[in-house]
Amino acid sequence: VSLRGLSSGMPDAKQTTTLDILKDASLSGQRVHFVLETDRMSYAATHMITNRVGSVMVKDANDRVVGFLTQRDILRCIVHKGRPVPGTAEPMGWNVMVGSVMAQAKDLVYLSPEDTLEDARALVSVSGKRHIPVLSGSTVLGVISPKDIARALHHASAEAQEQSAKTTYVSTVMGRRGIPLGTRLQTSGDQLYQNFALRSAVCSLSHPHKASAGEDAFLLGPHMVGVADGVGSWWEGGIDPAVYARSLMHASLLQCAKHHTDQQFAQRLPSKVLDEAWSMLRRQRVIGSSTACLVALDPFKAELMAANVGDSGFLLLRRHRAKEVGEMMGSLDAYPSDAKRCGQFHVAFRSPQQLRGFNAPFQLGRAPDSPEHGPDNRFETPQDAALVRVPVRGGDVVVLATDGLFDNMPEQEVLEIVEESEGVDEDTLARNLAHRAQELSLDKSIDSPFALLAKDNDICWGGGRPDD
After folding, report:
1. What is the mean pLDDT of the chain?
2. The dihedral sign for the CA sequence 80, 81, 85, 91
3. Are 52 and 129 in contact (CB under 8 A)?
4. What is the DSSP string of 409-451?
5. Which residues of 7-30 are buried (b: 16+ CB within 10 A; e: fewer)?
6. How far is CA 436 from CA 191, 286, 328, 424, in A?
7. Which of 121, 218, 325, 407 has its CA at a distance of 20 to 30 angstroms from the CA of residue 2?
8. Which pLDDT tens digit goes with each residue over 92-116?
9. What is the separation, in whole angstroms, between the first and last Cα of the chain?
10. How far is it, in rounded angstroms, from Cα 340 to Cα 318?
């Protein structure tokens, strides 16, 4: 494990590569840190704190990289594996070997030295990974963190290049040091936030070539909505794929029903609801698997929260509005010249997807031979969900769907249908989207999003992809 030779200076943002970022980090005294898979978690934690790093590579006795460990992994280990010592609050039993907690090498994402700063920023955003190794062949050159990306973006800015280090510190940091006396945390009962509500509707169409009622399922509630896509290959074993998807959404609904007031529900994160629903299905030994995406609106904050496992997901569509004098526009309001937009709306946010490979999404599930306790590496758990929080404003449109829509309908066409459906109710808009997606799935003359992705993976596919 080594770093290449160093040179000073950072090019502009469009030219900055991950190798440039590593060189800049090296000049700040950073290097690649590692522990052995047989080391204990306490040693890894001490190593990170001593060296002031947020992650370490993990290697085996033959110096081969076998995994990756972050500070978050250590905290999860203490919470999940630790047991309180009688009479104290101190946990015990968490100081296990690193190899039993680390992220496996096969599950890591990585960058190459030629990847750009924008590639690095996009990979952090889409993958949900905060620390990403940079590989040259089979050699680890270093690890890039969000802090490194932020530093590179700052150094590449014209303003930073024109200022001295002291001027930059004074103008950037000095005026923001120290939280004012009397600062308090915002609570859901405070009235500084405008109350928001979801107006939701659903349209569910089964596969046009199947006689069954379909393998997709949904949750429709006042503050939380969700979709699940049962994995169709379970039919080969005589198991109805719809059972798991429907059971998961029903269990999620039961968890939501436990909270009768807006104040109670505001504390119910989609990740927590998904975990409780999944745990219920494990206890009931429900066989099957599905993707899942739960989306909730905090009724007191202008914020959408989501937990997504697999290739279902949502688009947040926002209406353009003129910028008034003195008004600051957020990143979701602005859009670059090549952004997906149509008429009055643009795509302000798209949820990240999770795939093991082409057409092989992450999925929650249980097989007949799954262990009663412990992990089953054939499936994911709610701990693997991509978690997002997105600011919203009144009039935003959220399109939540399974891959039956996203595999067949380009985002531009989604925008066009929303634009054409201006003024109609939510039920009509949902029907318009679902029926158009089904029409496209049967069209053999188009290059659907699924067909384009298939060709990128050297698979010959033309037209749409019939599905629920």
Report:
1. 85
2. negative
3. no
4. S-HHHHHHHHHHTTTS-HHHHHHHHHHHHHHHHT-TTSB-HHH
5. eeebeebeebbbbbbbbbbbeeeb
6. 41, 33, 37, 16
7. 121
8. 889 999 999 999 998 899 999 999 9
9. 48
10. 11
What are residue 319's DSSP bridge partners? 345
% the chain with pLDDT above 90: 53
So what's the pLDDT on residue 9?
46
The average pLDDT across 179-205 equals 76
Rg (CA), the chain: 24
Residues 29 and 199: their CA atoms lie apart, in Å, by 53
3-state secondary structure 125-188: HHHCCCCEEEEECCEEEEEECHHHHHHHHHHHCHHHHHCCHHHHHHHHCHHHCCCCCCCCCCCC
Sequence-distant (6+) residues with CB within 8 A of 247 are 281, 284, 286
CB distance 57 to 68 below 8 Å:
yes
Task: Please provide residue 122's backbone torsions phi and psi, each rounded to the nearest 5 degrees.
Answer: -65, -40
Closest C-alpha to 379, from 308, 288, 280, 306: 288
Please give the Cα distance from 157 to 124 (Å, whole number).
20
Which residues, listed in sequence order, are joined to residue 83 by a DSSP beta bridge? 92
Q: What integer pLDDT is reported at residue 158 of this predicted model?
A: 55
Distance separating alpha carbons of residues 456 and 468, to the nearest angstrom: 24
The pLDDT assigned to 308 comes to 96
Region for 216 from its dihedrals, namely left if φ exceeds 0, alpha if ψ lies in -120 to 50, beta otherwise: beta
pTM greater than 0.85 (yes/no): no
List CB contacts of 200: < 8 A, sequence separation 6 or more: 220, 221, 225, 426
* H-helix or E-strand spanning residue 57: strand 55-59
Helices H / strands E in the chain, number of each: 14, 20
**pLDDT for the residue numbered 321:** 62
Q: Are 128 and 383 in contact (CB under 8 A)?
A: no
Q: How many residues does the chain have?
A: 468
> Region 339-360: what's the mean pLDDT?
83
